[in-house]
Amino acid sequence: DSDNDYDYNGASSSEHSGIVAIPFDRLSDTDDGDGGDDGDGGDDGDDSIDDDYNNDDDGGTSSSAHSGIDTGSVDRHSDTDGGNARSSDDGTASESGTASDSSIAYISDGSDHGKSTLADRLLELTGVISKTGKNKQVLDKLKVERERGITVKAQSASMFYEYQGQQYLMNLIDTPGHVDFSYEVSRSLAACQGTILLVDAAQGIQAQTVANFYLAFGEGLEVIPMLNKVDLPTAEPERAAQQIESTFEIDSSRILHMSAKTGLGVDQVLPAIIESTPPPSGSIDRPFKALLFDTWYDKYVGVVSLMAIKDGCIKKGDRIVSSHSQTKYEVSEVGIMYPEPTPTTSLQVGQVGYITCNMKSIAEAHVGDTFYKEKQPVDPLPGFVPAKSMVFAGVFPIDADEFNRLDESIQKLTLNDSSVSVHKETSAALGQGWRLGFLGTLHMDVFRQRLEEEYDTNVLITAPTVPYQIKFRDGTTKYIRTPADFPDAHTMQETVEATMEPYVAATAIFPEQYLGQMLELCTMRRGEVQNHTFIDESRVLLKCRLPMAEIVTDFFDQLKSKSQGFASFDYEEAGYEASDLVKMEVLLNNEPVDALAAVMHRSNVVTMGRDMAKRLKEVIRRQLFDIIIQTAANGKIVARETVKQLRKNVTAKCYGGDITRKMKLLNKQKEGKKKMKKFGKVELPQEAFLSIMTAKK
Q1: Residue among 175, 240, 241, 186 nearest 214 (CA)
Q2: Which of 23, 147, 267, 372 gives 378 a disulfide partner, CB atoms 3.0 to 4.6 angstroms apart?
Q3: Which of the residue ranges 83-97, 237-251, 445-459, 513-527 would you say has the lowest mean pLDDT?
Q4: How far is residue 175's CA from residue 121's CA, in Å, rounded to a whole number?
Q5: Number of CB atoms found within 10 A of residue 360's CB
Q6: Mind giving me the DSSP string for 351-362?
Q7: CB count, 10 Å around CB of 448?
């Protein structure tokens, strides 16, 4: 057993007549080619995995769907980033020899519904990991996942299973659950043939369940409903089954009842997958065609690509070509995740596996790219719709000398998380940095934590903003991603027709006693309630439209507070609407500070302006002259605070005499302070910026 962080330490053999994959830690066990696995493990191939990772004690959390694996080798687990709320764990089943290939994914109701525990039980049931009793979230390999208890990156593992005398090769894929990591889920669903709808029997369906179900439904995938945690005293399987039937129109007689923790009913899962899930399409006789849907960086071999094989087969030594760049590569290794990176002789149609091909430059890997063999061109696959950033933030190094190292770290991390957009920018106050686009605030916070923990970098992240639109009178439109791009008051008056802000279609599910508080919260955040329906006798599904800018602050905290933690929340993009937007600037002695500027709705300017001025007064050090802190919008001052000057007691030695003597000294000091203020310059230290950015909004 390996108890350290390693890359591609594995040995395996695989035969096309029945896949054989033997990880390095079980070389004493010989697999006879019947498809049963003796292997165990779980490194994700990323050089940034937690050093405490142990193959048998690690665990996988969330869920999503990936692809089915064909005969020839086992599919590889990718280490990708994940969240906490929305999730869909996925296992794919494929039969070696004469059996068919198929794939499956889990879609759970929300976080903490047993997706990861079910993944552990399935890996134990198929012999991928040993039944030590210590397996907890085996596929959660990143330190941030362990600390937060969420999945932030899709992971996969392969399993062998014998059913009715035939051997099957299944792929299990663990993806994030939170809405901020929906790009991981959608990419995974595009590569699979079926999904498991996993619902907590005690909590019932949640907002993330609804969103993930329709993602899978839109892909035309087979949905296998299951109720987990039926052994709990608070479990109400009949009520949860009724919710599934009424919400998704799924016959309740099809729902499997199980407990992943105790193992009750787990033995029914894999047969249900095999019976319900169709095999992947494609032919081994066609020219090789593969879809690149995930990548990560390995310090020893460079870029590692996770591909879904659509047609043909690939083996070591083959030369492949990228449809995107027409660059040619020689394949140096192919393999699957078992869940360790396990080399195999080949990857065939229907499988998902990793390929290393001496791709040294991070810029060469494009998620959604199609690969084919040299001199055998094929029509490119549709690929993926690029992720659309919903939240933007500036990232700057704490120490300017760390700029180059941070630049390299961001490149490597964005290779592993392709949903992040990167643009360089320069701030007068903070120096050189980047403007990064994220899918949400949790995504942003996880990215920052991964930068600090996996690459040992210290960064300063500015307050998150959303992308606004400016419509000009000449018919042109401009996207505003930073406050510096927002037009000034004169331009707004002369050339701007309308300002637009992004809205989201939000869904919340909560107990009926909190309906009043939820409606109040929606109204306070400039939301528009569309409708609310009862999904059973005690739970309400609320749909509303909200400005995206209202969600990126403390909306989730308020939601949980007002519902005492019972509400679940999900949202999706709903276009742009006209809004009265203004730019709020922060002035220090009449000098604007670009890093603290913000774009917001006019109704929030006074409240936010006063709050910003008060917080700045607390962190700015006193100088030998007064520091005037002002917040302004459209040329109008909305708030002011003053940091009083440090003063010497110039009258200390005056023990008597006329009052004019003291006044002369005081006036002389006053004139000196005016002159000092005229030439003095206020510089905000990094600590002040850090305090402002991390202060609770």
Answers
A1: 186
A2: 372
A3: 83-97
A4: 17
A5: 9
A6: -EEEEE-----G
A7: 19
Name the pTM for this structure.
0.68
Kind of pairing between the strands at 256-257 and 222-228: parallel
Three-state secondary structure of 292-321: EEEEEEECCCEEEEEEEEEECEEECCCEEE
**Averaged pLDDT, 179-205:** 80
Whether the predicted pLDDT of 63 surpasses 70: no
Relative to beta strand 539-547, strand 528-534 is antiparallel
CB atoms near residue 158 (< 10 Å) = 34
CB 87 within 8 A of CB 175: yes
HSE-up (13 A, CA, CB side) for residue 666 = 8
Q: What is the mean pLDDT of residues 210-220?
A: 81
b/e code 369-387 from CB counts within 10 Å (16+ = b): bbbbbeeeebebbebbeeb
Give me the pLDDT at residue 64, please.
Answer: 34
Question: What is the residue-averaged pLDDT of the chain?
Answer: 75
3-state SS, one letter per residue, for 674-695: HHHHHHCCCCCCHHHHHHHHHC
Determine how β-strand 598-601 pairs with β-strand 581-588: antiparallel
**Is the Cα torsion angle 21, 25, 31, 35 positive or negative in sign?**
negative
Q: What is the DSSP string of 75-95?
A: PPPP---B-SSSB--EEEEEE
How far apart, in whole angstroms, are the C-alpha atoms of residue 178 and residue 587?
A: 38
- Retrieve residue 466's tokens: 């959303």
pLDDT at res. 149: 72
- From CA 26, how far away is CA 257, in angstroms rounded? 34
Nearest by Cα to 365 from 335, 325, 308, 331? 325
Cα dihedral 340, 344, 346, 350, rounded to 10, equals: -40
| Phi, psi angles (nearest 5°) of residue 63 | -165, 155
Q: Give the pLDDT of residue 72.
A: 35
Amino acid at 593: V
Place of tokens 């005499």: 657
| Contact status, residue 526 vs residue 365, Cβ threshold 8 Å | no
Of 84, 43, 66, nearest in space to 185 by CA = 66
